[in-house]
Amino acid sequence: MHTHTMSQDEMKACIDACTNCHHTCLQMAMNHCLRVGGNHVEQGHFTLMMDCARICETSVHLQLSGSSFSAELCDVCAQVCDACADSCERLDGMDACVAACRACAESCRAMAKAVH
Amino acid sequence: MHTHTMSQDEMKACIDACTNCHHTCLQMAMNHCLRVGGNHVEQGHFTLMMDCARICETSVHLQLSGSSFSAELCDVCAQVCDACADSCERLDGMDACVAACRACAESCRAMAKAVH
Amino acid sequence: MHTHTMSQDEMKACIDACTNCHHTCLQMAMNHCLRVGGNHVEQGHFTLMMDCARICETSVHLQLSGSSFSAELCDVCAQVCDACADSCERLDGMDACVAACRACAESCRAMAKAVH
Amino acid sequence: MHTHTMSQDEMKACIDACTNCHHTCLQMAMNHCLRVGGNHVEQGHFTLMMDCARICETSVHLQLSGSSFSAELCDVCAQVCDACADSCERLDGMDACVAACRACAESCRAMAKAVH
């Protein structure tokens, strides 16, 4: 557990980035990827999309709850977001997802450092 | 299952209302209610706060996924939101939660009707 | 809200059925369906698999929490489980999922009736 | 990402331990702790109970999904479970929760190591 030194504004920004990444990944996986098929439903890629949505959703939950473990989860979240962005960059039509994942990864890394 | 006749804008509005209600209920339950204590941690009230957060989170998930059962879940979500708003109205300092729950209930009822 | 008249054993059985259905649908969607491809990743089918996993997970959450809205959610859960079972019956290698969904639908319908 | 070297049996055991811990923490928080009140609804303790339930639920989700990040999440899960067990040991009537948390922490630590 940590002494939380992040400002309310910084945490609000991280919650917003995670919410946006959660929504974008889930919506694109279930609508864009399933409709396009092919590489978009390859197991490794699709699993990363769903993992990323779920971890971001959990990160939002812990931050809103005032959890002492938000930093630890944000650290994992940043890793998943970067892996998802890498996978999306290799496919067509996933620019919105790449942008959401990179922004979330950056915000989560700042959060993970601030509270350690 | 239903023919979805709601516009993208209306669904976007419902997702936003559910997201806001989810965040407000969870944050207030875990921060405000647990700190204030007394009536705010009475089992019936606190359970409604957490139920409401969870149902709204699930409603967001189904709508983003393009689920055929979004209307059925929105119907339950509207009921939980109204019950949570009623409970919050009997306590001090819960105005933000009342407003978020009422707005979400209204949006979910519109969603539930539109697709039937 | 309802007078809960279900026994602890009946609720335990419903929680177990929902947990099993959640686990089976999620595991088969992300492992079996994504690997097999073709009809198994058709949007309608795959969305039902993921919906079913999520609704069952939420049903478990509400029942464990002692929610007053467990019956309403179990009613929706039974509908999703039956739709998912119907979809799985049209595909190869989904017998375990059909069985888990049918058992969960039956248990959820009993739960939904008992508390009304 | 890692080469997964854990056996199916070991992962099954970890999923079961996380499921049991998730169910036990959530049920005891929302039923036992809210009913007993006093120290049981002190913010630090109650937040740990809900964090632990949520992280275990997410750990189950990632493992069932075949996620490449199960190990990273299990590492965080083990830390939360131990903190929750420590908190529960200082209160009356929480023996079942202590046992579920310790067993889950041990299983998650094995999982986190096995795949690195």
From TrEMBL, chains A, B, C, D:
Q: What's the protein name? A: Four-helix bundle copper-binding protein
| Gene3D superfamilies listed in its UniProt record | 1.20.1270.360
Q: Which organism is it from?
A: Massilia psychrophila
Entry's InterPro entries? Csp_YhjQ (IPR005560), YHJQ-like (IPR044543)
